[in-house]
Design brief:
about 240 residues, mainly alpha, 3-stranded antiparallel β-sheet, 10 helices, 5 strands, globular
Length: about 240
């Protein structure tokens, strides 16, 4: 609003900008809730009976956003290079599931495939082959990696419901959501010495400052480890 009114002042439509006198509210930064490695293992074990376990495992091993993971198609998997190409997000628009452009330019990125993710993808390919044969003419060849039993894209709301059920079964806090998996991935990377800039790139944040603000809770532990290593190096 302030920018719009500044333009109006420049164009002499109004004499002064009334928004310039307004006191801007402070932005509150909330630290991200996350799961420990043991809690992640408990959640994945509790989700064995749901078809969404591969999604949960993918998210916690890549740091992808929910919509980014659900928007993945097989043609975005480059096995020769060992990467996933992230260039869209699945969202519900006007009642329909559609893939929309990434939220920022840096959200369009390449994420390396670990051995764990390779195994998840292998199992998903096999499951889709079985389900495609079972569905016959009812199968929809959409190209999505995460699909329903008929090949249609997975509804994010159903994935969240499955996660909530699994979290309750594992005895985890009720506040656990799909984004918690992304936060857990970021926290695990930072506490294991991955540089903040690298974590920011993996997550697709628009700036490293955002990563630092969201994961400030990791800083004391990382700093302690860094200073211990510094002491050992100079000893």
């Amino acid at each position: 609003m302030r920018s719009i009114l500044d333009t109006a002042v420049r164009d002499k439509v109004i004499a002064e900008n009334p928004a310039a006198k307004a006191t801007r509210p402070r932005v509150e930064h909330h630290e991200a809730a996350y799961l420990t490695p043991d809690q992640v293992r408990a959640l994945l074990a509790a989700s064995d009976t749901t078809r969404y376990r591969p999604l949960f495992e993918m998210m916690v091993n890549t740091g992808l956003r929910r919509g980014e993971a659900l928007a993945l198609t097989w043609d975005k998997v480059d096995e020769d290079e060992g990467v996933l190409r992230i260039d869209g997000t699945l969202a519900r628009v006007a009642g329909e599931l559609v893939v929309t452009p990434p939220k920022t330019a840096r959200s369009r990125r390449v994420v390396s495939i670990s051995a764990t993710v390779q195994e998840v993808l292998r199992q998903l390919r096999q499951r889709q082959r079985v389900e495609r044969l079972r569905a016959g003419s009812q199968w929809h060849q959409t190209g999505f990696i995460f699909t329903t039993e008929l090949g249609m894209p997975c509804d994010p709301r159903n994935a969240l419901r499955a996660l909530k059920v699994s979290a309750e079964k594992a005895g985890l806090p009720s506040a656990v959501g799909l984004h918690t998996l992304r936060h857990s991935a970021a926290t695990a990377m930072l506490t294991n010495g991955v540089p903040l800039k690298v974590v920011s790139d993996v997550l697709g944040h628009s700036s490293i400052a955002i990563t630092g603000d969201v994961y400030g809770h990791v800083a004391p532990e990382v700093a302690t480890d860094a200073l211990a290593k510094l002491g050992a190096a100079l000893a």
